[in-house]
Amino acid sequence: MKKKIMYAGFALSLMGLAILSSCKKDSSVAGTTKVQIRMTDAPGAFDQINLSVKEIILFSDGKPYTFTAQPDIFNILDFRIGTSKPDILVASGEIPSGDITEIRLVLNDENTIVVDGVSQPLTTPSGQSSGWKVKLTENPSLIPDVSYSLLLDFDAAKSIVKTGNGKYLLKPVVRGITVANSGLISGTIMPVDAHPEVLVINGQDTVGTVADAITGKYTVGGLAAGTYSVKYVPVTGYRDSTVTNVSVVLGQNTDLGTMTLTQ
């Protein structure tokens, strides 16, 4: 995609912890989707719950894709919706678009809990190498060129189990919520020999692409919700044309249909 000015805008907290992540891709799947995975907390009566996330596995159309998380330990109780730190970014990457059917949270062994000022290990039951299944509020369909945040809501009160000898076990109870962070504008330009540049404009921000030389189709993704103008700038011999008041909704494709340019 040719871009004159990149439009910046995810709906949820792109300013956050910078994380090196990796994601396995399947090049046979048409279209990819950018995903951020964030965590927040439903409070519990503890001083700290320090988690070390190893990886998060997303199953798209039944195939697993692994996102490597930051290895540093963080106190999940520091991140609560409605506060100045509503969540923490734990991983990000790009996967083939499709239906998310399952999410698994895989932890390292360095988890700890602090109760009444005393820190002790927070152990997980054996046999959890495949991770903990996240309960999804829905099975989202990830659309190509739309960015999403997957918010993992960690329930501290339900996730910690105190044993008879005063130790603590970690059995994560996590709810997954999907939020679309951007939308699309698409359409078709005729005649194809106009070879137009397509400019999507919102105020001082412009994103550009070109129509396919054979089909005349175009798609501009990664757009924040709002109202745009779409300007078609063809090669010499055809007139510019502009469509105004184009509404973009997060997670949806605004299809402008076929635009026929005149000479």
Structure description:
The chain has about 260 residues and is mostly beta strands. It has two domains: about 30-180; about 185-260, Immunoglobulin-like. About 0% of the residues lie in helices and about 50% in strands. The chain has one helix and 23 strands. The strands form five sheets. The chain has a six-stranded mixed beta sheet with strand order 5-2-8-9-15-14. Strands 6-1-13-16-11 form a five-stranded mixed beta sheet. Strands 3, 4, 7, 10 and 12 form a five-stranded antiparallel beta sheet that branches. The two termini are about 25 Å apart. Residues about 1-30 have low confidence and may be disordered. InterPro entries: DUF4382 (IPR025491). Keywords: Signal.
What's the structural blueprint in terms of helices and strands?
Layout: E1 32-42, E2 48-51, E3 53-60, E4 63-68, E5 74-75, E6 88-96, E7 98-107, E8 112-115, E9 118-123, E10 132-133, E11 135-136, E12 141-142, E13 148-155, H1 156-159, E14 160-162, E15 168-170, E16 174-180, E17 183-190, E18 197-202, E19 205-210, E20 217-223, E21 226-233, E22 241-248, E23 253-260
Parallel strand pairs: 1-13, 9-15, 11-16, 17-23
Antiparallel strand pairs: 1-6, 2-5, 2-8, 3-4, 3-7, 7-10, 7-12, 8-9, 13-16, 14-15, 17-20, 18-19, 18-21, 21-22
What do the pLDDT scores average to? 83
Low-pLDDT runs of 5+ residues are 1-29
Cα-atom Rg, whole angstroms?
Answer: 23 Å
Question: What count of domains describes the coordinates?
Answer: 2
The helix count comes to 1
Strand order of the largest sheet: 5-2-8-9-15-14
What is the multimeric organization of the chains shown?
single chain
Indicate the percent of residues in helices: under 10%
